[in-house]
Specification:
about 625 residues, five-stranded mixed β-sheet, eight-stranded mixed β-sheet, about 30% helix, alpha+beta
């Protein structure tokens, strides 16, 4: 059962919980959140740290959380922060920065209180991803990414927590936190236990009307809770797709020691209420928060959300849940020290999210190769010679942050390349899946690796060729020769002519890019439709058919272009060498040349065929 598993884990942590700021008589921090009383779209939080032994203490709400790689500053949503002694007298509280408050005379402190606003409908400017955000919708939904509500006392992150949440009787919780209130009589109060603050931050909770399915596959209990504000979607409608995916993923992970439960918290937003252009999912310890449009069809949610986004998040139970560095294990929420190994946490995870599908027969080998080809093309939009470990370590700096999206492109390709090298060196018997399994057994959830040592550890566990690859292509700045690697498994390039629109080809690869001035320009890819109109590489696009174009509305024009047909007049206004030009012409159905990666038809005895079979089909 899920509660028993997590209780066992938390007991293991308790032995190391110690602090000089709190009395040994009671090491548990008591937190209460009242969801029954919403005032001005805010809820009250009360924190009782028991007996403090220092004269002053600092209470902090996270500035950043794992998995986001960007500053969030949740503290800006907390207001009216007060501290009281046991007689109800206020103590002096000074705000040190957007996320920190100092309490004087802390030895007298009984509790602190504050009010929290949510991020979903906030008018405050912030950079919090919606899937990492919070929602307070009185009587309807509470989407609790807990860093937005609960903080920690500086120096006391390892102290256990009891989190009591009072809630409406007709809203039900979904979370991987241990709910110690198992009495049926009290269905309006939940009491959650966490052995340290990191467990609080990494276990979101959603309260919503009952719209949940639960099933067990290969020993993993999976729950899917869906909040659909207009009752458009039922969790039951997504059960088959989710069950099929989880079964394939757990088969792929056979032998891994990961988790016995997984919770998926889905908030489907109404685009008439929230005009969010960016949405997705955020991984947590053994759960994920997901935000998608409610207007998506069942098929779109099954294919895009379940088979795409959620499948990626599920594989985070391997890394960073089971394999992670000290920087992740004891995360500094307010002065972050980032890890060098996004290639593993996000790259290997994204690679697995594709590999398992071909390995388990959900897609064909050519479909998998096509996906990798797309990632190769997408990765070229970033700095292909930037050290991946250096980028990861400095990901919060602007120079490196703009390359973050490459962790899902080149990061996955690093996983693919490493896999092929391992299979070649081991004559097909050992791959990245085996490596991650061995690392999971070596480290596991409670034993982090040292950031500066893990690459040497991997080389020692495998082959010298892996060290050469790391030196050149991971820590170094040498571009990976994908063509040479794929040739080893009988995958080769072949030219092909395909249809092309004015902005996208039939493979949905774009003919546009943007510069540092946020100007949209045409790339140097050949396109007969653009050539017929007179477009040249480097032309900056200013308007389409008389309407100005910018990064905010370009998707609208791309969508409209699919409706253009023979007989339509097309007009682009472009800037070329500082001169504004008007390009006019009749609609033309265009073509472009692409180089496809195709699988060679080889006999079963061919060494390349054997290596490819081991790469894509072996466990």
């Amino acid at each position: 059962m899920k509660k028993i598993l997590f209780f066992a884990i938390t007991i293991a942590f308790l032995g190391s919980c110690a602090t000089s700021n709190i009395s040994n008589k009671d090491k548990t921090i008591q937190v209460a959140i009242d969801l029954n009383t919403v005032v001005d779209d805010k809820v009250k939080v009360e924190v009782n740290p028991a007996k403090i032994t220092s004269e002053t203490i600092v209470y902090q709400i996270p500035a950043i959380v794992p998995g986001t790689y960007a500053m969030s500053n949740y503290g800006k949503f907390a207001s009216d922060v007060k501290a009281f002694d046991k007689n109800g007298n206020e103590l002096t509280v000074s705000q040190l920065d957007p996320n920190s408050w100092q309490i004087d005379d802390a030895k007298k402190m009984d509790k602190i209180t504050y009010w929290v606003d949510d991020t979903f409908d906030s008018e405050k400017k912030h950079g919090i991803y919606v899937m990492a955000g919070t929602n307070i919708e009185e009587g309807k939904n509470f989407f609790l990414n807990l860093p937005g509500f609960v903080g920690y006392f500086k120096g006391m992150k390892e102290t256990p927590y009891n989190l009591t949440i009072s809630h409406p009787a007709d809203l039900y919780e979904t979370s991987s936190l241990i709910n110690t209130n198992t009495t049926k009589e009290n269905n309006t109060k939940d009491v959650f236990y966490a052995s340290r603050y990191d467990e609080i931050s990494d276990n979101p909770i959603m309260y919503a009307p009952l719209n949940t399915i639960t099933f067990t596959v290969n020993g993993v209990e999976v729950s899917l809770a869906v909040y659909s504000p207009n009752n458009v979607h039922a969790a039951k409608d997504l059960e088959d797709a989710l069950k099929k995916m989880v079964e394939a993923q757990t088969n792929f992970l056979e032998g891994f020691k990961t988790t016995n439960e997984y919770n998926i918290l889905v908030y489907l937003f109404d685009p008439k209420v929230y005009n969010w252009q960016s949405f997705g999912a955020l991984e947590h310890l053994s759960s994920t928060t997901v935000v998608f449009p409610e207007t998506y069809s069942k098929e779109q949610l099954s294919n895009g959300m379940i088979n795409g986004t959620v499948s990626h998040e599920f594989f985070h139970i391997v890394t960073p849940l089971s394999v992670h560095s000290e920087e992740i294990h004891s995360f500094d929420f307010n002065t972050p020290n980032m890890s060098k190994h996004l290639w593993m946490y996000e790259g290997i995870t994204e690679y697995f999210a594709n590999l398992f599908q071909v390995n388990q027969g959900l897609i064909s080998e050519q479909e998998f190769i096509d996906e990798m080809k797309g990632k190769i093309a997408s990765s070229m939009r970033y700095n292909d010679t930037m050290s991946f470990t250096k980028m990861s370590k400095n990901i919060l700096e602007d120079e490196y942050a703009k390359n973050y999206g490459n962790v899902y492109q080149k990061g996955a390709l690093i996983g693919m390349s490493l896999d092929i090298i391992l299979r070649e060196e081991s004559k097909g018997t050992y791959g990245v899946r085996n490596l991650m399994k061995d690392l999971s057994n070596k480290y596991g959830q409670t034993k982090p690796f040292k950031d500066d040592e893990i690459l040497d550890v991997i080389v020692e566990m495998t082959y010298p060729a892996v060290g050469t690859f790391f030196d050149n292509h991971l820590t170094g700045n040498v571009a990976i020769d994908y063509e040479a690697l794929l040739a080893k498994v009988g995958v080769v390039k072949k030219a092909k002519t395909i249809d092309a629109g004015y902005f996208l080809d039939s493979n949905r690869q774009i003919f546009l890019s943007a510069n540092q001035k946020q100007e949209i320009f045409f790339t140097n890819r050949k396109n007969t439709a653009l050539a017929a109109l007179g477009v040249q590489p480097g032309d900056v696009l200013k308007s389409v058919n008389g309407t100005d174009v910018n990064l905010q509305n370009i998707r609208t024009f791309i969508g409209q272009s699919f409706q253009w047909k023979e007989g339509d007049k097309i007009t682009f206004e472009v800037i070329r060498n500082g001169e504004t030009l008007k390009l006019e012409g009749d609609f033309v159905k265009g073509t472009t040349e692409v180089e496809n990666l195709v699988i060679e038809d080889l006999p079963a005895t061919d060494s390349k065929k054997k290596l490819r079979d081991a790469w894509l089909k072996a466990l």
